[in-house]
């Protein structure tokens, strides 16, 4: 029997993972899953900061193309993309 926190409802995390308990929710958060696809994307440990940012830029560009028919989403993604590009410039 799995303990479920009072008031916790099972829900999907972004990236198609589902948290059935609060403990699973916290474990998924540690792995980089969250509820917001527009937040800066995270990578597994082992990459340099520059590599992480380049990967994030690549992923954000894919998301922009995927949601090109939704201007509000594209606006948020472009903002995150610009922030990542500025951060990459500061590292050079």
Brief overview:
This protein is mainly alpha-helical and 92 residues long. Helix content is 52%, strand content 4%. It folds into two domains: 9-38, no CATH class; 49-91.
Q: Which regions have little confidence, pLDDT < 50, spanning 5+ residues?
A: none
Secondary structure tally, helices? 3
Instruction: Report the radius of gyration as a whole number of Å.
Output: 16 Å
Shape: flat
Describe the structure.
This protein has a two-stranded antiparallel sheet with strand order 1-2. With 92 residues, it is mainly alpha-helical. It is flat and about 45 Å long. Helix 2 packs antiparallel against helix 3. 52% of the residues lie in helices and 4% in strands. The termini are far apart. The longest helix is centred in the last third of the chain and has 21 residues, at 71-91. The mean pLDDT is 76. It is built from three helices and two strands. The protein has two domains: 9-38, no CATH class; 49-91.
